[in-house]
């Protein structure tokens, strides 16, 4: 019952025991471990060590561990095994959703081979069904295993049928009620079953208020629905309302976590899903694309600035505030776009018309821009900068903050309408664009004010 | 069974019906709605309209809607109600965890008043217990309602006791098994109960492999445990192992979502939890603090640059690349810190020693820095910049990328060790710091190379 914590000592011990081929002691160590913990140990081992350990596990545990591995490790591991072993020892012992996920990672020839070795034909059929759903839809998240009863049955018939059905299902959260055509009618709670007499009919006690999604609904909407209604399981129906599967919260939690990490990384300029433990090469590959965009943007910016060379040479004080103006444009742009990206993702845009949204964003931008411009003005006034510089910095600050706010707000909306992930707008892209345009506005204003005042 | 979508038309209709005081039609509209949907409608109404609608709901629905409201709206609503109504109509009908959450939002005098009006003394006691746990611990997330049976009972006794217990619990996911002292021993699955004969003893069929947490464990660890082991419910025990409550996945999903949003917003320079639908004033307040830091940083940067005024006046081309170098420092710093922040949050730091981490980060930084410096060098060479500028830009690029990578990696680790949220390190803070130090390094190098070459 104690919680497991992976220690370096344990890993050292296990590697040593593998080296000694001490199967008895290793089996003993693994016996009481949770598959998720064994998966953590696996990720610290070489492929040869992992294979040795794998064949000490009983079949159900082996299948569970395989599901818990990171995708890269799982693929490496499966590559080293014949299709028949994959089918019999692993896929055949998984829930249909996990089985479909694992098979989807294999290449097509291998998929067919593995499926052909499955002994349970109806399971193979389920997997093929699941593979047909588009990625990121309810169909791709769901499992086929569930417990259903007919509305015309009584409690005794239900219990008899459920006894048979539970052998295939790990956790029973809900019993679904369907009509003779398999159309979902509602749910039957354990509570109601416990509180009713055995000859009560299902149709008299089931709860018809059930929230369901169609198999082609996007995963993001599935997440929002389960989150909003605090659901643990969500039934999935086909286009004519027949119950085809159910999505459990753990799959949705995984999806949520991945999406949140992806958005966070995009906002930080990382283009690939990486973790601290990944290889140096993978880290470099994930980071360099955006650094290249930044470099290109900065070099383009240097061309913009070079157009004002004479001005800078004559008034080098103009250069003092260049990084400030560039940075403020980037900062304001990121803030505005981050809020839009989150609102789009959570479906919380509200009912404001585009005009109202514009009006609101203009108000926020005006407040921020005025405050920052005023401070920049006061600062330059206080340190005794001449009027031309003071006016340049303050008016550039105002323009840049206004522009970046509006741009940061509407770019995500535009991308979203064009069906491009709006998270792309935060971070890299918007910062660079605002940097360059900010520089340009600043130097134009400087040219003007220095002309007027000096 | 259809899914609900809030439309502007529906809201207009409801407002009109409220205006007409058409209680019959309104009740009819609300009757089949999910509390979460009603809560969405509420947030579009004025406080007077909301109150009118509220008293048309039956008590259980009213309590559920209250839980679903955003905190601000809930507080505004509760302020307008007497303590007795809050206790009888709302708190008394909630699960203990929701009740404690709502009460915790009230000020202390009001808390006592509401608790004194509760008719169910044992519930009041449960709420007081829950209020005593620190925020962000397992204790603060858990509910007291659960179903437990003793290991010495047989199935018949279990069922009899469960029939009584389920009246207080909404959803039954697990039946917990305890000994005579209330110490958690394991779980009893519905599956096992269905498959065993009625005189079987609990002790012979329960599953002793149950993962539990102590009430003082941090919420982040709770999240990681439930995520890792794919749990829907997690039992909570006290220091001597007695079962005191259970945490359900929906509470953890809410916590996860909030944390992910907080990290994302921090990384984007937003200091308060805001949504697109919040007021202009709240948006400004959430954004301005970091803009002030950015402004202060930029002004400090302008002082650094002004120390090199003579150099810039003589060689204005030095200014062309200032924004590029500043931006690269910021970009690289954000990337490195974002990866560390995520690794710390997910507990996935691995077993590398600090020395190994340093070595790895140095390798990644070296690759990125060399590539970027080489490109900057080639660019300047290609456009025919003189050697002094070419060397300055390339060597500054190299230094800034190296420094920002290492700083971005180790600042989050340092903050984490000092028990400060490492997410603070991404975004604002690190960008500004890297901007300024990058400027300084660049101008020092410029001074040196222009001295050497010209």
From TrEMBL, chains A, B:
Subcellular location: Cell membrane; Membrane
Claim: Metal-binding is one of the keywords in the record: yes
Keywords: CBS domain, Cell membrane, Magnesium, Membrane, Metal-binding, Transmembrane, Transmembrane helix, Transport
Pfam families in the record: CBS, MgtE, MgtE_N
Domain spans labelled CBS: 206-262
GO molecular function per UniProt: magnesium ion transmembrane transporter activity; metal ion binding
Parts of the chain that traverse the membrane: 320-341, 362-382, 388-415, 427-450
GO cellular component: plasma membrane
Record membrane topology: Multi-pass membrane protein
Role summary: Acts as a magnesium transporter.
Similarity section: Belongs to the SLC41A transporter family.
Record's subunit section: Homodimer.
Protein name stated in the entry: Magnesium transporter MgtE
């Amino acid at each position: 019952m104690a919680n497991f914590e992976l220690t370096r000592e344990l890993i050292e011990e296990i590697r040593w025991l593998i080296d000694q081929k001490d199967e008895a002691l290793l089996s003993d160590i693994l016996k009481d471990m949770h598959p998720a913990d064994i998966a953590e140990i696996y990720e610290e081992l070489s492929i040869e060590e992992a294979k040795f350990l794998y064949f000490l596990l009983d079949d159900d545990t082996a299948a569970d561990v395989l599901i818990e591995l990171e995708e890269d490790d799982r693929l490496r591991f499966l590559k080293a095994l014949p299709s028949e072993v994959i089918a019999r020892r692993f896929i055949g012992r998984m829930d249909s959703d996990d089985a479909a996920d694992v098979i989807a990672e294999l290449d097509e020839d291998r998929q067919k081979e593995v499926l052909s070795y499955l002994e349970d034909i109806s399971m193979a059929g389920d997997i093929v069904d699941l593979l047909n759903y588009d990625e990121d839809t309810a169909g791709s998240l769901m499992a086929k295993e569930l417990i259903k009863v007919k509305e015309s049955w009584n409690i005794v018939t239900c219990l008899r049928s459920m006894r048979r059905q539970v052998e295939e299902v790990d956790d029973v959260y809900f019993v679904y009620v369907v009509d003779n055509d398999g159309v979902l009618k509602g749910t039957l709670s354990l509570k109601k079953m416990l509180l009713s007499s055995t000859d009560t009919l299902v149709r008299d006690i089931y709860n018809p208020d059930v929230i369901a999604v169609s198999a082609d609904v996007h995963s993001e909407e599935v997440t929002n629905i389960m989150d909003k209604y605090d659901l643990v399981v969500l039934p999935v129906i086909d286009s004519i309302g027949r119950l085809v599967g159910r999505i459990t919260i753990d799959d949705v939690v995984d999806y949520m976590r991945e999406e949140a990490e992806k958005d966070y990384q995009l906002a930080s300029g990382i283009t690939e899903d990486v973790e601290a433990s990944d290889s140096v090469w993978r880290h470099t590959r994930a980071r360099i694309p955006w650094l290249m965009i930044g470099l290109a943007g900065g070099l383009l910016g240097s061309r913009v600035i070079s157009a004002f060379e004479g001005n800078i040479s004559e008034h080098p004080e103009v250069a003092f505030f260049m990084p400030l103006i560039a940075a403020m444009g980037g900062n304001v742009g990121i803030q505005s776009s981050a809020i839009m990206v989150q609102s789009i993702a959570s479906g919380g845009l509200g009912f404001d018309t585009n005009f109202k949204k514009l009006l609101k964003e203009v108000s926020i931008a005006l407040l921020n821009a005025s405050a920052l411009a005023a401070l920049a003005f006061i600062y330059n006034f206080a340190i005794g900068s001449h009027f031309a510089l003071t006016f340049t910095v303050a008016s550039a600050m105002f323009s840049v903050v206004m522009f970046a706010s509006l741009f940061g707000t509407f770019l995500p909306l535009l991308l979203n309408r064009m069906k491009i992930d709006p998270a792309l707008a935060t971070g890299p892209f918007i910062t660079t664009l605002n940097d360059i345009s900010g520089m340009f506005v600043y130097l134009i204003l400087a040219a003007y004010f220095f002309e007027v005042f000096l």
